[in-house]
Amino acid sequence: MQHPEDLTERLNQVQAAGQRWREAEVRNRAIQALAESLAAQRDTLLEANTLDLETSRDMAVPEILLEWNKLTPERLQATVEGLRRLAACPDPLAAPTLYGHWQRVPLGTIAFVYEAIPQLAWLVTAMALKTGNVLVLKGGHECSQTQSVFLEIVRDVLAGHRLPEEGVMGLPPGTAIADLLGRERLLRLAILYGRPTFVQQLTRQATISVVPAAIGNCFYYLSPTADLKLAVQVLRESWATDPDPVNAVEGVILHRQWRDRWAVKLWQELGGTFKLQGCVETVAFARQFPEITVAPLVEGAWLHPPLDRTLRFKTVETAAEAITWIDRFSSGHADGILTDSLAESTLFAAKVRSSSLFVNTSNRFERYGVSATDGSKTIALGMTGLKSRGAAARHPGPIDLYALTTTKRIVSSAPPRSL
Fold first, then answer.
1. Mean pLDDT of the chain
2. Is the predicted pLDDT of residue 414 greater than 90, yes or no?
3. Sheet containing strand 210-212, strands side by side
4. Is 394 exposed, middle or buried (0-12, 13-18, 19+ CB in 10 A)?
5. Over 80: is that where the pLDDT of 277 sits?
6. Given this chain, do its domains 4-214+390-409 and 218-365 carry the same CATH topology?
């Protein structure tokens, strides 16, 4: 295990590197070079990832982490393309100031602590460069070989652009995560990424501000006027993110009227690709149809996302009951409603305590997407919700470039008159 004094020295080096970051144009070129280097080093990265997977299987790592940690040529290429898009995005630090007294600035030193999905470390590295932050990476043992190769690539890219190599630093295996998350003076923020149990455990241990990534356990309410075809589409698309189903809908709340009319057809459409579970009332209803299997689910299980293509159904009598259920059990990062009622959609928008609410549309997460409002490119590491203790969720919603910046107030009685 790394000695606390060694960790302090490493974090001091990272923090000092932030004062030596060069202008945005240089950092953009470095991001572009990083993308090209990852593409050029594809075979080396895939070989390192194969070693990680073999080691993980020998250690009986859960299947979900093996799947998340698997680096395929397609996943690698998608990340390379995402980094190229990121380099072309507008400078987030050049955003207009508010009333001329506020300046958008980097946060400072950020830690990214993750279990698997090595390509997310590549993305957050590029995001740190884009926003002028410095970065500490702490991956799980499941991806240690892949991270080691990546850090060598990063060092070469930074050196080639006369940027401080300490600006992106990986912590070795054996570094105590709890110790890292207690360094208030040296770290401004930690982004925690992995299974919900992993994220929740670290969030409880942290004394610094954290952004806990959320995966799965999203809810959708199907009102009496919900469209069946759209319901099928929304539920399927919510699982389409690769490899991590960020906005996966696992809780489906059925108004009794909608259930009585459409539930059997919905289950027939989805039963071949999803496991179906339900509350006592929903299971009792499903038993009328021998061709349908909806397994019983105890109430306490609603809090724990299975992340294995399971859909859980709850029958309610009113929209208010659905809202209460969502606020009680959802992860709070991407919930939705299908309805033809303006009153119901307005009620949900006002009452559901989620960072993102989707009305009559898919909540599919697009890591490298295009804005539905203005067609601009959007880049997001993941999602975070509102249900966090204290200052944990300092920027609810997408974990994007904006989430890695803050504002500084500039107060002056008179501006300087000369250079």
1. 91
2. no
3. 168-170, 134-139, 109-114, 189-193, 210-212
4. middle
5. yes
6. no
Neighbours of 32 (CB within 10 A): 17
307 torsion bin: left (phi>0), alpha (psi -120 to 50), beta (else): left
Residue found under tokens 């992995």: 194
Contacting residues for 11 by C-beta, under 8 A, at least 6 apart? 109, 136, 183, 186, 187
Place of tokens 């500084």: 408
Question: In 10 A of CB 407, how many CB atoms?
Answer: 13
Query: Which class is 4-214+390-409 in CATH?
Result: alpha beta
pLDDT for the residue numbered 395: 66
Tell me the pLDDT tens digit for each residue of 46-68. 999 999 999 999 999 999 999 99
Q: Is the dihedral of CA 325, 333, 73, 376 positive or negative?
A: positive
Domain definitions of the chain by residue range: 4-214+390-409, 218-365
- Can you give the pLDDT at residue 411? 77
* Residue at token pair 């100031």: 97
217: left (phi over 0), alpha (psi -120 to 50) or beta: left
pLDDT higher than threshold 90 for residue 173: no
In sequence order, the 6+-apart residues with CB closer than 8 A to the CB of 343 are none
Q: Give 367-403 pLDDT, tens digit per residue.
A: 997 654 445 567 999 999 865 444 444 568 899 999 9
Written out in words, the top-level CATH class of the domain with range 218-365 is alpha beta
Of the candidate ranges 91-95, 265-269, 387-391, the one whose mean pLDDT is the lowest = 387-391
Dist. CA 341–CA 322, nearest whole Å: 15
β-strands 168-170, 134-139: how paired? parallel
Most distant CA pair in the chain, distance = 84
- pLDDT tens readout for residues 326-354: 999 999 999 999 999 999 999 999 999 99
Residue 124's closest CA among 86, 173, 165? 86
